[in-house]
Amino acid sequence: MDLPGLLRNKRFAFYMLAIIVTLAVWVLQRYMRAAAPSESGIVSSTSLNQPNSSDAQSSVSPANSSDPQGKAIDIYMIAASLLTTLATALLGALGYLLMNERQAKAPLQHRVPATALLSATLAVVSIYFGYRCDSNALWYASQGAFTPDAPPLVWPKIAQFVSLLLAVFFFTDFIFNELGTEPLHGEHEKS
Amino acid sequence: MMIAAFVSILWLGVPGASQMPALAKLIVRSIPKSAAIMVNGQKTGQFTDAQFVVRPGSYRVSVSSTAPGGANCSESPSISLNAGDARTLICNGGKWQ
Description:
Chain A is mostly helical. In chain A, 65% of the residues lie in helices and 3% in strands. In chain B, the strands form three sheets. Chain B has a four-stranded mixed β-sheet, with no helix packed on it. In chain B, strands 3-2-6 form a three-stranded antiparallel β-sheet, with no helix packed on it. The interface between A and B is large, with 40 and 40 residues.
């Protein structure tokens, strides 16, 4: 098997990247789950003696969130949803710019800049961790035990934010340094 | 290659994405309230009534209070919790219920 030749095949490289990113996210998730905050095995704790605290057996309804826990859930979910929306918008903007570039005077030919690819990949990772935030928050809310500092809620949110931040960074690099530039290495548009 | 990528994303991503956290819930109550809670011999900083989100495993709970007439229960028998379990312990009259 001609591995260098295969790697030059952009489709092969793209799917290899997808597998690698999936593996990396999976390993990161395992690390998040394995990180034990205390030797006693306690992830988070909540007092049930607070005024207006929900009964431990009842679930918290975000739609009727007059209590502090309900408000915390609302804030958490709004932030996660906002970041997911931003990541989705970034993906859309990347796609639009790449399509436009193909029709421009200095098309990218058969090359997708690494910065655009990285930006898109990180945006997808951010969207995925936004989904994890939603799943974990749903579990905590259903148990009536939502605490914003619980590791299963903190780590996906940090991962979501950092991956979106990196996606924006590479998107900016793509905009300023790749968009509209002449193709490199003798690739010229055929007139 | 396309199939390999698709299968790997499904196999690794979907189970991981659809899984709820592998956690359990432990509720500790006492009559009267406001007794210090210890779990597995370690202070938790919480007072009854409180609930704990814990990793699956075995736990021994004790509560103690210095107040006159406060709740005091020695270490409970080991409680085994699996993912998704919810267990309530009530200390009443010096005994666990």
